[in-house]
């Protein structure tokens, strides 16, 4: 009898070892491949060759935002690289505007490799401009170098069936402007049927296929046939469609192009900061990026591009080695068939009196309570950590203890509540109750969002199949009963651990509660083992849950004591010098990501409490202090012409930066009723009509980020009879010399990001239509 009771402990230990093994394989699968040297065969992608190209192009790691002299230098080097490879590059110059009201003059670099057949073409794209705050070596200098290395490799291969167009576009960081200019006005754009886009939101990690066109069943099948190390999930595709984030591929997809979008997201703390530099580039990530790009490009270039079927697929990689897929329309029938098989087994268990309906109900209650308790506990712990200052920013310097804490927390809740509900539910009650919920979720997701369904459908299929040997024979719990638990649990881990691991890199501390709930969900099929664990002799069944509890406490302590920032993972902190030309008032504004002003900066100037920033596009708290008045010319806003028609007055105006700032903006108040705003003839959306970045602010903000010396023409209409006070501002990168003391007081563990430190001069102009 004692030997029989020891099964509970041994099966729990075996399950733990299997899950740890799966976690290890998951982490190994997320490691990008080793970089190939410069001596690699000419027809393959070499990260070392791409790195050499990257260093030649970027030179001194300087920021090169659209329209800057440094941007011109980068473009000239890209043209030289295409020339050296034997291509005939060209530059497309165009004035383009984003849907959320940024405009700029962009200069795209294009080259073409003719295919064996005339007609449709395939596009390979990356952007070469940077944010003003940093050199953007990984985002997207790595993409540029990868495109050029792929272009070199294609030159030594036989001509593909279809032509390949290489696009290195400008102005992506200012609002996807280069890709818009290509799609809207370049004659080659009408030839493109499929696009491969290379992006980055970090400096390391695997190259992830995170977005596709509408025909992703077609695209994923081709990619799976050619890729050596696929890392892809339809979860990313389904979620990304619902997020406000955009890349150049968003423009390509809207133009009807099919294809794939790749990015790596490790080291996200360095994203859009000066630390996105050559020293932090990952050669392994470049290798994975390039291999994916070359594989997808060759697959599309040799495929039938006439009319790719617009069907979606469910897909996921297994340990970064294999890509499983099936048509999305099959998810619901699969889920229904597995649910039916599972229901028959539960019905048989009830008929043979091995489980009662009451026990199944307790199992279902235990499942939902487990997830609820995990979510509540994780939320409380997350708030406690934030209150203690352990998570002041979204990506902290040392996240490993934080991740361990919330994974261990989920496991602790699973074990503790599994033991609690085992008394009322029994082994088969917990098994049936858990899989009843999984079946419901599988059916709901398969019906409503098939791309999100496979984490439920696949384990459900394993549960329905693995349960047969244990549920059909009328006998007591045996080894087959353990298989009915462990096998589908292993399937859930293989499927679910990859998203759980990547969630922090993707969403940061904001996702930590979700991570804990997701881990708990993955582990809920293990709850039936707790029924056997209760039968273990002595106090072992009570002592075992204390292992993850102790791990959680230790990890939380480590999270609190380790610093939240470091020189390699700093806090984002920008400084603004703002001058109101109407009143002569000038102020310093400091915007720390943590919303806590560092002490060295607090003593450097007399900062008050947090306020909202001076610009209409500022929506976060900033700290203000008086600044000296400087002799800076204010931007001008001149009415060139106005006409009246249909209750509206239409204006033709000139917006100009008198001090030569690269950016100037015109802001209408939310209730102005401004219509038909155009900059240099390009139509723009109204600020109150729902742009992604401005809808919550309510003001209509229209900016040109490449201001010519002569200014830009802005046209718009206003309702007659209602005075409107518009704000005019220009912005230059960097602080005036008088701000050096404040910039020098910024801690070493803080860094500028995005636009970085800026100088803004503003004024108001009243219009009386």
Give me a quick take on this structure.
The chain is built from 22 helices and 23 strands.
Q: Could you explain how this protein is built, in words?
A:
- The chain has 22 helices and 23 strands.
- It is an alpha+beta fold and 769 residues long.
- Helix 6 runs parallel beside helix 9, helix 7 crosses helix 10 and helix 16 runs antiparallel to helix 17 (512-523).
- The strands form three sheets. The chain has a 16-stranded mixed β-sheet that branches. A five-stranded antiparallel β-sheet has the order 14-15-20-17-18, with no helix packed on it.
- A hairpin with an 8-residue loop joins strand 12 and strand 13.
- The model is unreliable at 1-5 and 686-698 (pLDDT under 50).
- The radius of gyration is 29 Å and the shape is globular.
- The protein has three domains: 47-319, Aminopeptidase (3-Layer(aba) Sandwich), CATH 3.40.630; 347-561, no CATH class; 570-769, no CATH class.
- Helix content is 42%, strand content 20%.
Q: Distance between the terminal alpha carbons, to the nearest Å?
A: 94 Å
CATH class of the largest domain: Alpha Beta
Give the count of helical stretches. Answer: 22
The major beta sheet can be summarized as: 16 strands, mixed
Structural class: alpha+beta
Spans of at least 5 consecutive residues with low confidence: 1-5, 686-698
CATH homologous superfamily label of the largest domain: Zn peptidases
What CATH architecture of the largest domain would you give?
A: 3-Layer(aba) Sandwich
- Please tally the β strands and state the result: 23
Q: Tell me the Rg in angstroms.
A: 29 Å
DSSP helix fraction: 40-55%
- CATH domain fold name of the largest domain: Aminopeptidase
Return the domain count. 3
| Percent of sequence in beta strands | 15-25%
| Principal-axes shape call | globular
Mean pLDDT: 92
